[in-house]
## 1
Amino acid sequence: MKIELIIPRERFKAIKGKDINALLRENLPKAEETLKADREEFLCEKIGKLEEKLREMESEIEELREFYEKALRDKELMMAERDRLRKENAELRAKFEEKKSGLEKVHKT
């Protein structure tokens, strides 16, 4: 594996002639901590965004639940009204048939 480091000219002059491996070993823990902190910050931001999205989704689910419950209540009301109208229609048909048969009897005599 090949790693290339790009450093400013002044920094290069300052470390020229020093043991690069020793410098890397010295600075590696700091670099690891920095990377760890960056990763934690990234993950915290990601968690925040996900939590916000979760709240939005929960809100949408609640709205859908309310809509669904209202739709069920409306359906029950409509079915009850349909049954009432069927019963009323059957009663009116029966009355109509009575009147019709009564009129037919009157006309036959």
## 2
Amino acid sequence: MNRMTLVVLLGFFLVACGAPVQRKSVGLEESTMLVLRSEVLVGSTITIGESFRKVVNESDLTPYEIGVLGAKDRENENLETITLKVDEGSQRITVQKNSQVVVDKTMYFSKGQTREIRVP
């Protein structure tokens, strides 16, 4: 009887140790981004592909971030910047200011890539 009890207890122990475990996948999200910089972006209309169109407001602007070890980039720190998440693949980017097209280009975006355009 002692052997039988030991076998049953050992069986329960092994089953409990082999229970399925749910794992969470943790990692970096590889967002594909487009950064637009200009002296004046507020009021501009940005079109990406055929599904995204936005008129830029003051609240849409991305605040300037100081570079590595606090180094500043004098050229970029005074520009208005907007950062947009885009789909991978070839995208047509159009920027209009006062009904005039100032940027009209097609760009290819790889997964996790960030591309930048300086809008005149």
